[in-house]
Amino acid sequence: MNLPTLKRFTIEEYHRLTELGFFQEDDRVELVRGQLIYRAAKGTLHSVCSTRLNRQLTKLVGDQATLRGQELIALPNDGEPEPDFAIVRNHADDYLSGHPRPEDILLLIEISDSSLTYDQETKLELYAEDGIQHYWIFNLIDRVLEMYSEPYQTSEFGYRVKRIALPNERVKLPCFSELWLDLSIVFPTATV
Question: Taking CA atoms, which of 99, 105, 140, 166 is between 20 and 30 Å from 16?
């Protein structure tokens, strides 16, 4: 009996589909482990948190690194996800020659409400597998910042360290010992 198989795409095939206009301009699609993943639309809380986080990270990081918002990163296992934010090493051509790779990434950040389970499971395992050293999830459901570090592998991939920060705390940005992010400025305070 022949069972149906899932078609996996390479990064090159994904780029070709984009060039051919397969995706509409407002399609929210990313390539994860060769699969096309349609992402949920962002709600108000997500948008407000994203705006505030962008403002604060831009001030903090300045010229010390490059802040990328909703831009592709290149992962070895046929993946080009678009995290909400990535802080990456400065690159002379601002990554014109290619998207940031794991060795360029200082911190990946996802802002999660409807995508929380996906970000805590699929994305977490993906980022750990590719050696991303620091991964944060702004968990808007529980109103906490989940900070993951030290990727490892047993039968699955994950992070050895998970730290929770509350919305009234300040946290140090990884790789920048002098930079502190005030979460009370970032987390939306009113429910929508």
Answer: 105
Q: What is the DSSP letter of 104?
A: G
Q: Are 129 and 153 in contact (CB under 8 A)?
A: yes
b/e for 105-143, b at 16 or more Cβ within 10 A? bbbbbbbbbebbebbbebbbbbbbbbebbbbbbbbbeeb
Q: Is a pLDDT exceeding 60 seen at residue 192?
A: no
Mean model confidence pLDDT for the chain: 87
- Pull the structure tokens for residue 142: 């529980």
Q: pTM of the predicted model, to two decimals?
A: 0.81
Sign of the four-CA dihedral 59, 118, 140, 191 = positive
Share above pLDDT 90 across residues of the chain, in percent, rounded to a whole number: 64
